[in-house]
Write a structure and sequence with these properties.
The longest helix has 10 residues. 17% of the residues lie in helices and 34% in strands. It has one domain. The protein is α+β, with helices and mostly antiparallel strands and 118 residues long. The chain binds zinc ion. The site of zinc ion has 8 residues, from loops.
Length: 118
């Protein structure tokens, strides 16, 4: 992840904060911007199936009620990824977002996704 802070106020300067995530398994790039983090703010929605979601929860439980996460699959190889981030209030009711961690499976074989999720 090449950017750790996503600040919505940057848009006032006609600058959208964009971060590129590169998949460690296939080098595919996924691009995120501030609105992706706004959309998942305090959302418990996951784009992963229950097994993978639980695997991430086991490794690093989401304890802090303010901690948010963004679950997705690599568009190219399908490897599951979880980005955790924290909203920071910089003005009343306005938040920017700071990336806390990026979780990825150490091994990923696109041909047998079921086994790797265990
Ligand atoms: Zn990939």
């Amino acid at each position: 992840m090449d950017r750790l802070v996503f600040h919505p106020a940057a848009a006032y300067d006609h600058e959208m904060h964009i971060g590129n995530f590169s998949c460690r398994h296939c080098d595919a790039e996924v691009q995120f911007n501030t609105s992706d983090f706004e959309r998942h703010f305090l959302s418990k929605h996951s784009n992963l199936d229950a097994g993978m979601r639980r695997a991430f929860d086991d490794v690093q439980p989401v304890k802090d009620p303010w901690e948010c996460f963004l679950d997705f699959r690599c568009v190219s190889c399908g490897a599951p990824v979880r980005i955790t981030y924290n909203p920071k209030e910089y003005a009343m009711g306005s938040f920017y977002y700071e990336i806390a961690s990026v979780l990825e499976p150490e091994e990923w074989d696109a041909a047998s996704p079921r086994e790797s999720s265990a």
